[in-house]
Amino acid sequence: MAIQKATNITWHQGHISKEDREKLLGQKGVTLWFTGLSGSGKSTVAHEVEKIFYERGHASFVLDGDNIRHGLNKDLGFSPEDREENIRRIGEVAHLFTEAGLITLTSFISPYRSDRQKARELANEGDFIEIYVYCPLEECERRDPKGLFKKARAGIIPEFTGISAPYEEPENPEIRLETHKNSVEECAKIVIDYLEKKGII
Amino acid sequence: MAIQKATNITWHQGHISKEDREKLLGQKGVTLWFTGLSGSGKSTVAHEVEKIFYERGHASFVLDGDNIRHGLNKDLGFSPEDREENIRRIGEVAHLFTEAGLITLTSFISPYRSDRQKARELANEGDFIEIYVYCPLEECERRDPKGLFKKARAGIIPEFTGISAPYEEPENPEIRLETHKNSVEECAKIVIDYLEKKGII
């Protein structure tokens, strides 16, 4: 885990609080943390949910695994250390977006339970909603939308989650989706219903 | 500079564009990049501008040097390499916030011209507004709000910008503020006037 390296730094308190921003935007700033295997449908569901937010006038944003790896985290690979640092940075960025009052959707495999726990600990109570996008490995492999499982099986991609690297299932996610049983629209509705019930939107 | 390490990643295109978000929020997503010496007043002016945004109903957020160093960039120190990586990450995060449609204020010394240029290159034309918060070194040192200049002169803090590390002045900033001549409120007004003239708010 990253240790605090910089010293001689002080916290600069702004004038506007998270509550102020939430009032302005008419919503609660939360993180919807989608986790699951490659091919499980994390990004597809997250972007569907984002579309519904937009139609309802909510400010939201998807932090997407692949997209972030082209920018902020382009210096990181897929070793255990790099995966940990990848998720650490995403947790911090999601926290900033959440503090800004946005409904923040993160779509990352995020295979390690401890890394997801650290991301959760950055958030205020109730502001971190873990969404386990469950889909059996065989079905993810059958879908293989990016041809990655095929490459992993052929040994071209090392350290591939589910094949040659571990995925630690969430023990108590706030929401569990099953994309082999429910359509994208049905999964999105489950998320929206949860947020409505909790008074977040 | 960080090189692209991760391979086998693809760009996931969402349904909602930056323009959609700007329409929803009634503003343009831009980055206001405050740069200047420690003690020049970057954060003070940025937070004052943020307050005005809030009062006018605009969604904005300050990414503050010290605050970010407690979280996302807590693994970085003040060596030239770490400073470069610090600003690289901030540039990427500011870009994400800007894509989300927010008016994003960054308050970092960001002493190297090339690093600021890289942050600018991430943005669409017109979305990156460099604000040089000018204040003579002697005046920054006289203010010394955090006692850092004193420590730097005593050699307790090495690599301190303006004393033992370089600051490369912006050559063509969109806005130049002079905090030794103008009050915080006057400086904030200069920024707001610029944004209004450009149709950003």
CATH homologous superfamily of chain A? Answer: P-loop containing nucleotide triphosphate hydrolases
The succession of helices and strands of chain A, N to C, reads HEHEHHEHEHHEH
Q: What would you report as the Rg of chain A, rounded to the nearest angstrom?
A: 17 Å
Largest sheet of chain A: 5 strands, parallel
* Helical content of chain A (DSSP H or I, runs of 4+): 40-55%
* Number of domain units of chain A: 1
Q: So how many helices of chain A?
A: 8
Q: What is the quaternary state of this protein?
A: homodimer
CATH class of chain A: Alpha Beta
Mean pLDDT of chain A: 92
Which structural category do the helix and sheet elements of chain A fall into? Answer: alpha/beta
Distance between the termini of chain A: 34 Å
- Look up the CATH topology of chain A: Rossmann fold
User: Which strand order spans the largest sheet of chain A, edge to edge or round the barrel?
Assistant: 2-3-1-4-5
Low-confidence runs of at least 5 consecutive residues of chain A: none
The count of DSSP E runs of length 2 or more, i.e. the number of strands of chain A, is: 5
Query: Which CATH-level-2 architecture of chain A?
Result: 3-Layer(aba) Sandwich
Topology readout:
The structure is a homodimer of 201-residue chains.
Chain A: H1 18-25, E1 30-35, H2 42-55, E2 60-64, H3 65-70, H4 80-99, E3 103-107, H5 113-122, E4 128-134, H6 137-143, H7 148-153, E5 175-178, H8 184-197
Parallel strand pairs in A: 1-3, 1-4, 2-3, 4-5
